[in-house]
Design a protein that fits this description.
Keywords: Glycoprotein, Golgi apparatus, Membrane, Signal-anchor, Transferase, Transmembrane, Transmembrane helix. By secondary structure, the protein is an alpha/beta fold. The protein is built from 20 helices and 27 strands.
Length: 722
């Protein structure tokens, strides 16, 4: 109940501040940054107009991004120091732009450059402030301006702005006195970077033209500081709201690796950086300092966890290993048990293709090598200087992925232990390691909607004729009746023998009659078809024909005749396919053979058995969602690679085209909305060996589950024995 303020005279508000500031209340110029609901008002005298909502809720609520960074560079240093800045700190800042007077002929990769057309320093600063206000003034709360000869600790700068209030006019940096000027008036040295708040930028913008005409200065940072002081009455400060802007000035021939001063380690910005090599050395040293701080913080937190856990009802037994990492997942039934994968230094005994043994290679081999090296290093750190361990052999290795904590490893190592006196002994030791899950990152994705038109493409052969009627019925019921924004194109694949007799007997005449009936029933619907003559229906060759007959912005859904189209899946096709970003290859659910699953006891599954008597067919790549423009880009690269060897296309699918010849994300996921009835696919032996083998595997695995097959064999053996 006591007063927090010490007794004494009340603090006076700053010059020009409203009287409310003395009482601790915000003045009329301050904004209330809490979200508020703006009521909708409709003028009865104006015609009704539909209200358009914003795409994102933060736009509607008026939220701003936190930090924008501007780097001032020049034509002479764009390909040297500016590149070094981009490689060291750019990926830590949410938005970073480079500003220069004149640009070189070629802009370095990965850099967003704005050229003003004049190398004069004052003009560059004036144009930069104008550009920032015009394009980003309403989107960001903080603006950090630095030079390309400045090394800034990006994480420290981001942490700084999170501790500052956004409802104040902030001009924060390394405060310097004007030469021959007022001792109280200070400007922020541009070499060490400075921070401007959004409110200050908005107030400063109307006076920039006057500053350009009235203030004479050689240095752009002095010119900006004088402009802010003269028109806003705000001087640069190095400390604000309990936060300090630490800087460090590098001397000539400085060795960053040998700098141990506290001032250097606490610096947010270092200046001047004379060359690219020095920039990289500074980044390496500050990264090492930051890493040491993190390790020390982890140790302190682990000690606190141990001390606090001892006071809990579970006592010291409640401490998990490693300390601070989530406890292992506890399964509630045998179906939730996470299995361990066995491996050696050469082989893995749980392979992606289902084979019992495969060679350890790629990322898995690098993972195992790193884990073994880390285990030996930890043992040496624990037992040195009494013992020194070296690896002889990995006897056994086990690993599993626990979604609650990360990748777990158990290693049986054959080690050679050497003492200080030179004696050695071979022993086996079991070690356990955890590679914990790191910080979860949200990957930014382009904005998509469910209003995109989907163009279905259905290839048909003679073997598919028995299933076309069901496909068209489902298409009419789920898309035409519901007026979904989807179109259908049929691709009739004629064998050369059938193509010669098409005048007498058209094998697809029945399908064409069904299409005519649909067009008659739905007057606004047109279902075109394309006829192709080939012995080998290559998916890529067929898609080449379809691609040329549609606009580049067409969203294709490459379907199969067994696919049952529904609105739920079409919406996922629209949302998961992003032009110039991502393609979608769904894994359909294949129902098992009812003769083996039900064996005459049950002929139809109930609604509660949905997705039970079947499996997701990972061998099939027949269904795909992609944009025509993305396919054409990848297909052009493929054509340049294979030249005129068209026979290569017979061994490829559309999936292979995107996998090897595009830089897009390939999103492949199980799709419960695509359910296919059991049927035996016809596998064309004229296709490549891999495609034919995949088709045969799909048929075999689609028969039934292991339990159903075992029961069928058991019943057959019983019948034979009797």
């Amino acid at each position: 109940e006591e007063r927090c303020l010490a007794p004494g005279p009340a603090a006076l508000p700053a010059r020009g501040a409203p009287p409310e500031a003395a009482e601790g209340r915000p003045g009329p110029g301050h904004e209330d940054f809490r979200p508020r609901i703006v009521p909708y008002y409709r003028d009865p005298n104006k015609p009704y107009k539909k209200v358009l909502r914003t795409r994102y809720i933060q736009t509607e609520l008026g939220f701003h991004e936190r930090l924008f960074v501007a780097v001032l560079t020049s034509k002479a240093t764009l390909n040297t120091l500016a590149v070094a800045v981009n490689k060291t700190v750019a990926h830590h800042f949410p938005r970073l732009l480079y500003f220069t007077g004149l640009r070189s002929a070629k802009v370095p990769h990965g850099m967003v450059l704005v050229a003003h057309g004049d190398e004069r320093p004052i003009w560059l600063m004036y144009e930069t402030m104008n550009y920032i206000h015009q394009h980003f003034g309403s989107d960001y709360d903080w603006f950090y301006i630095m030079q390309d000869d400045t090394y800034a600790q990006a994480e420290q700068v981001k942490a700084l702005v999170t501790h500052l209030s956004i409802n104040q006019d902030v001009y924060l940096g390394r405060a310097e006195e004007f030469i021959g000027g007022d001792e109280q008036a200070r400007y922020c040295h541009g070499g060490f970077g400075y921070l401007l708040s959004r409110s200050l930028l908005l107030k400063l913008h109307p006076h920039l033209d006057s500053c350009r005409n009235e203030i004479l200065s050689v240095r752009p940072d002095e010119w900006l500081g004088r402009c802010i002081i003269d028109f806003l009455g705000i001087a640069c400060v190095s400390q604000l709201q309990g936060q300090h802007y630490h800087t460090y000035e590098l001397a000539k021939n400085t060795e960053p690796e040998k700098e141990e001063e506290e001032e250097f380690q606490a610096a947010l910005a270092v200046h001047p950086v004379s060359d690219m090599t020095l920039m990289y050395r500074l980044h390496k040293q500050f990264s090492r300092i930051q890493l040491d701080r993190v390790y020390q913080e982890i140790q302190d937190l682990q000690m606190q966890i141990r001390n606090l856990t001892a006071l809990t009802p579970a006592g010291e037994a409640g401490v998990t290993w490693p300390v601070g990492i989530n406890a292992p997942f506890l399964p509630k039934s045998r179906f939730e048990v996470i299995s361990w994968d066995y491996f050696t230094e050469q082989h893995l005994f749980s392979c992606p293709d289902g084979s019992p043994k495969c060679e350890l290679s790629g990322a898995s081999k690098a993972d195992v090598s790193e884990i073994i090296e880390s285990a030996v290093e930890q043992l040496n750190r624990l037992y040195q200087p009494l013992l020194r361990f070296s690896k002889r052999q990995l006897l056994n290795g086990y690993r599993r992925f626990d979604p609650t904590r990360g990748m777990e490893y158990t290693l049986d190592l054959l080690l050679e232990a050497a003492t200080q006196k030179g004696h050695s002994h071979v022993l086996a030791k079991r070690v356990s390691l955890v590679r914990p899950l790191s910080k979860v990152e949200i990957i930014p994705m382009p904005y998509v909607t469910e209003a995109t038109r989907v163009q279905l493409v259905l290839p048909l052969t003679v073997q598919d004729l028995d299933f076309v009627a069901n496909f068209l019925d489902m298409f009419a019921m789920n898309t035409l009746d519901t007026h979904d924004n989807a179109l259908l194109t049929l691709l009739f694949i004629y064998h050369p023998y059938d193509a010669q007799r098409v005048g007498q007997v058209d094998v697809f005449a029945g399908v064409k009659a069904m299409v005519a009936e649909l067009e008659k029933r739905y007057a606004e619907v047109k279902i075109p078809w394309i006829s192709v003559k080939t012995e080998v229906p290559s998916q890529v060759k067929l898609m080449d024909i379809v691609s040329k007959k549609h606009p580049v912005d067409t969203l294709f859904f490459l379907a199969s005749v067994w696919t049952e189209i529904n609105m739920e899946f079409l919406n996922r096709c629209r949302m998961n396919t992003i032009s110039n970003w991502q393609v979608f290859f769904p894994v359909h659910f294949q129902e098992f053979n009812p003769a083996l699953v039900y064996r005459g006891e049950q002929t139809a599954s109930s609604s509660t058995d949905f997705l039970r008597d079947g499996h997701f067919d990972r061998h099939s790549f027949a269904e795909a969602c992609f944009y025509n423009s993305d396919y054409m880009t990848a297909r052009t690269k493929l054509a340049a690679d294979i030249l005129d060897r068209d026979e290569v296309l017979e061994s490829m699918e559309v999936f292979d085209v995107f996998l090897h010849y595009s830089g897009l994300h390939l999103f492949r996921a199980v799709e419960p909305g695509l359910v296919q009835k059991y049927t035996v696919r016809s596998c064309n032996p004229r296709l490549s060996e891999e495609l034919y083998h995949r088709c045969v595997l799909s048929n075999l695995e689609g028969l039934a589950s292991r339990s159903h097959l075992a029961m069928a064999l058991f019943e057959q053996e019983q019948a034979n024995s009797t």
